[in-house]
Amino acid sequence: MDILEIIQFAFVQKAFIAGSFVALLCSVLGLFLVLQRLSLIGDGLAHVSFGAIAMGLFFGLYPIYFAIPVVILASVFILKLVKKGRFSGDAAIGIVSSAGIAGGVILASLSNGFNVDLFSYLFGNILAISSAEMYFSIFLSVVVLAVIYLFYYDLFSITFNEDYAKTTGIKTERINSLLVVLTAITVVLAVKVVGVMLVSSLLILPAVTALQLKRSFKATIFISAVFAVFSVIIGIILSIILNIPAGASIVMCNFFVFILAFLLRNRS
Amino acid sequence: MPIISVKNLTVKYGNREVFSGVSFDVEKGDYVGIAGQNGSGKTTLIKVLLGLVKPEKGEISIDGISLNNFNTWGKIGYLPQSLALSNPLFPASVKEVVALGLLSEKIFPKRIGPKDEERIIAALELLGISDIKDKLIGELSGGQQQRVFLAHALVCNPEILILDEPTTALDPEIRGIFFGILNKLNKEKGVTILLISHDVGYIGNFAKKLLYIDKKAVFFGPFKNFCDSKEMENYFGENLQHSICHQH
Fold this sequence. Notes:
The complex is a heterodimer of chains A (268) and B (248).
Chain A: H1 3-6, H2 10-35, H3 39-58, H4 63-83, H5 89-110, H6 115-123, H7 131-150, H8 152-160, H9 162-166, H10 172-194, H11 199-211, H12 217-242, H13 246-267
Helix pairs in contact in A: 2-7, 2-10, 2-11, 2-12, 3-4, 3-5, 3-6, 3-10, 3-11, 4-5, 4-10, 6-10, 7-10, 11-12, 11-13, 12-13
Chain B: E1 4-13, E2 16-26, E3 31-35, H1 42-49, E4 57-62, E5 65-66, E6 76-79, H2 94-100, H3 114-126, H4 142-154, E7 160-164, H5 172-189, E8 192-196, H6 200-203, E9 209-213, E10 217-222, H7 223-228, H8 230-236, H9 238-247
Parallel strand pairs in B: 3-8, 3-9, 6-7, 7-8
Antiparallel strand pairs in B: 1-2, 1-4, 4-5, 9-10
Helix pairs in contact in B: 2-4, 3-4, 8-9
């Protein structure tokens, strides 16, 4: 099967479109998270989304729609644990993510009927995305990207230095909360693309790849987005040609692009 | 009316009191050196003035407005001790870093336009670093970075400039240039300067007034009065006072 033939299929086109939007979103948000050393919040929230998806399946609700508000609440809870409970960020993420995984495992064992469905969310299934899911992913991606655009300078400023940002009148706690809530939405959308286990790679890899090329902040965001979309397209094509899981294929493409950029940087 | 008024300020970190009962007034156009030993509360004091640390008690007003209601942060430029870049790969150009200084006067949605670009270039030219405007901040030397951060503090034409040991990482030549720029801003543009240094004698070369902190305000007034003060002689000892004032 050649590439031209592959891209004719409607399910592949839907995967390209939804995957590209989610990758674009992850790459932009991921740069802020990586530079603020919050990379693992994506991993923690993905684990929570596992529990939330299990809960959705358990109650017979559409899991992704159900997971979004639950993961947003979990992200707010992590912030509260850090702020009011005075836990460190990684400890707070650990507390919430472990509860998410444990909750998901318990619900899965209580209901033997949805184990197969749950497995598909663990490793993603972008090639099985429906039209409704694609439109939903596009809609939420556009909304989140618009919010990032509107708060771009606030996000950039707190990423550069939080104290510095405060002295220019930026309400840093609000902006941090916004960043975490946007991450929660993004993580749930990315679960469909690469699965719970690999979500953090979509947030981290394009960002760290772009950082190897040493450009201005805006240019780094752009490069990160280009790498992310490129990896999704190539990853999906390779997954069909080689008959391997699409989520893992996308992540490996991201990984190899990172290795190339890393070698290029060290050579120069 | 003083441009900065601090009354009976007490700050605690948990149960540990950093300083207590600190009061002083800074007039418009003053150049105040803030000195004290390590851990005396100098940096904490300016963090309180900038709203970064909440005081236990006391009142602060800036330009006649209580700090709780103060929101015209563009009037204050701040240069931290050394803004250690936690990530040397941080992808920000010099222009982008200086642009962040303009955010204090922007309203939602904040945008940097062509007129702002001109102001950024003007601030960089003032500090003689317009040639590095497109370089990444992480690629610069300590001296260049410090000048970029000073440009960040100056870009919105602040009335008050607060600097926390700004020249610690600089070599003597750059240090001289740096203080020359501050002097010019103070004398020609009437910018009020608050400058922290652990070196009391060195501050005396530039500052008109001195605030010496040691868990409280030990001295506040013109530097000359510090040198003539019997009270300070008793506090520091004749030799140390003489040594400080001799440097000056």
